Amino acid sequence: TDQSAVNAQQFADDEEIVAMIGPNDSDMCMATQAIVTEEEMVAITPWSTLVVLTDSPWYFRACFDDSFQGEILAKYAFEYEDAKTAAILYDMSNPYNEGIATRFKEVYEQLGGTVVENLSYNGKTGETDFTSQMTKIASAQPDILLLPNFYEEIIAQTTQARDMGYTGKFMGSDTWGDTSLLDWDTENLLEGALWVGHYHKDVASDAALEFIANYHETYGTDKDPNDIVALNYDAVYLLKTAIENAGSFDRSAIRDGMLAIKEFVGVTGTMTYDRGTGTPTKSAVINQISGGKFNYLDTIVP
Q: What's the confidence (pLDDT) of residue 204?
């Protein structure tokens, strides 16, 4: 976070730099929010879904926000999975994780569900032993367990949940969107799990399919680019569109050019900034893990 602030200040002080793309992490974005606001420089985060970030009139995002994501997860847990009880385990040290957990609980309970355990841990201390939390969760035996945490932690958490006796399903957020998660899931712990994502190849637009093909060729891989890659790509072309709308490299004009985007067809879907804020109106996809793959399940339109 400290280095993010240093970088943002360096950019803002350079008159030849007209805008900033990034950071991705919510914590790091918040460390730069006051700087870009005071210095009046547009910042576009590809992937930070933290709701309060776009309270600044100079901060934009290429993704949906935690409020939308948490609501989708709650509705799918209660309605699609018919889960009447849920538990949550989240990293309290990151506002991203906490934001989704909070919104999920709020909407889930409004729908009539019961959150039997709402537990946390401190990811910044390197915590890897979740057996205490999982013992409580297993004892309550909820229908579903929400883990809105980064994909590097998910296998340890789901393994410990099963070891402690939890038998229900798992659910995740957009941080699950890397195929490394599938490679590490050698015990098929995540079979049937749902998570919210930003795009899926099975319902990709022509622009997205072209992007995927170019990615394969450029990097010499048959692996599809994950959500983070796609959102960073979209952020670059959102800025390009804003500058074209502005017809200028003036910082204030670029901000107005962002707000003037009526329809941007990106890799991660069609988006518009019609709310007068830096959060776009755009859809999300529901993915289900089955057969060792991320399978498309549904598209959710705001």
A: 86
- Give buried/exposed letters for 7-45 (b at 16+ CB in 10 A, else e): bbeebbeeeeebbbbbbbbbbbbbbbbebbeebebbbbb
pLDDT, position 167: 95
> Is residue 44 over pLDDT 90?
yes
Nearest-angstrom CA–CA distance, 20 and 53: 15
DSSP annotation of 78 reads I
Residue 156's φ and ψ, nearest 5 degrees, are: -60, -40
* Long-range own/partner contacts, residues 42-45 (CB < 8 A, 24 or more apart): 42/18, 42/239, 42/242, 42/251, 42/254, 42/255, 42/258, 43/8, 43/19, 44/19, 44/20, 44/235, 44/238, 44/239, 44/258, 45/21, 45/235
Structure letter (DSSP) for residue 125: G
State pLDDT tens for residues 148-196. Answer: 999 999 999 999 999 999 999 999 999 998 889 999 999 999 999 999 9
Specify the 3-state DSSP secondary structure of 286: strand
Q: Are 122 and 72 in contact (CB under 8 A)?
A: no
Question: Which strand (E) or helix (H) includes residue 169?
Answer: strand 169-172
How is 175-196 classified by DSSP, letter by letter?
GG--THHHHH-TT-TTTT-EEE
Summarize pLDDT for 144-158 with one digit per residue, the tens.
999 999 999 999 999
d(CA 38, CA 56): 10
Q: Which amino acid is at 143?
A: D
User: Within 13 A of 49's CA, how many CA atoms are on the CB side?
Assistant: 30
**Alpha-carbon gap, residue 197 to 180, rounded angstroms:** 15
Dihedral Cα 10, 39, 257, 61, nearest 10 deg: 70
Q: Which phi-psi region, left, alpha or beta, contains residue 269 (left: φ > 0; alpha: ψ -120 to 50)? A: left
Q: Tokens for 213, please give them.
A: 């093909």
At residue 258, the 3 state secondary structure works out as helix
